[in-house]
Amino acid sequence: MSAQAQPVWSASSGLAFVLLFGAVNLFADMTYEGARSVTGPFLGMLGATGFIVGTVTGFGEFLGYALRLVSGRWADSSRMYWPITLAGYVVQMVAVPALALSGSWPIAAVLILFERIGRATRNPPRDVMLAQAGEQMGRGWAFGVNEAMDQCGALIGPLAIAGLLAWKGNFHLAFACLALPAIITLLLVFGARFTFPDAGRIAREPQTSQVGRYPPAYWWYCLGAGLVGFGFADYSLIAFHLSKSHIVANEWIPIFYAFAMGAGGIGSLIVGRLFDRLGLFVLLPVTIVVAVYAPLAFLGGFALSLLGALLWGIGLGAHESVMQAAVAHMIPRERLGSAYGVFGAIFGIAWFAGSAALGALYDVSVVAMVAVAVVAQLLAVVPIAIAGRRVRTH
Length: 394
Description:
This protein is an all-alpha fold. The protein has a single domain, classed as MFS general substrate transporter like domains (Growth Hormone, Chain: A), CATH 1.20.1250. The protein contains 18 helices and no strands. The chain is globular.
């Protein structure tokens, strides 16, 4: 492939691409984060236990990350970044409104898993295109802006669901109404495809003896992110706890989630910008502070639970904005999709194992569950620090 086949992004064209995809993800997040804000109580209403909620949502996160290994390698080998991205968005945006048709927790669980499969399919090729577009403007800032727009949708969606629940008190109606932002998402992403048809067109570079290997910093970062994921309870378990303990009324649960997403959006902008200056070291204080989310969310009353949810959102936004940017700094662009896939698989396995373990511990001892979550988060500081030092001295 010639050099001319690869699009040359300027800061302005890269920003335009990032903003357009930010709009795509804003409406996508309105759709699936609106649904996710109440999947815990919804599954509970359909007869699921805490263990089932933790396992279903954890396995969903596992699929949402582990299957990126497949889609990432597929994207790198086929160079079909756009077709794979579009297919993932279609699956995801169909699965969410279909929850309105579910009448039992197993059916709802299958749809929840399909939504995660769609996300797993579209994320690696999409992130390769975003990383490429962000080369001139700063990858941390590019992913930070994209994540901030994500979180705007993640704020609006749960608030809309909260309003619908307060008005009608009907989960099925709330899920049906999410068809509107789902349709807008698909229109926007197909529009982006026709506006930037050459996005993701990457020249194949000469093979070297290092093919098949990733640098040590990458593996240290994978370990740190895996520990973060293990200790990061899915919001569905937090929502299940808030509902079961009657700490807040059901209509307040998506509002908590909306506030968490808003905090995550602000956090992603700040941390994304700082990453371009400080590298991975910016995650060290963030990880330590965010570790406090678990005792606040699961052991506190209304105010402390809200603070815990805010810290949970900040942690999610910070790690989501830095993850992709950090990997792009460590891996050559022609292998970036595969690297995102491997990273996602490791993170997904850790999140699934952690969610299942935390869900099981919740049914036995909330204090023990909180202790495991905090320790896992704090242990992540060491490998993240090692990765940051290795990247800086490389």
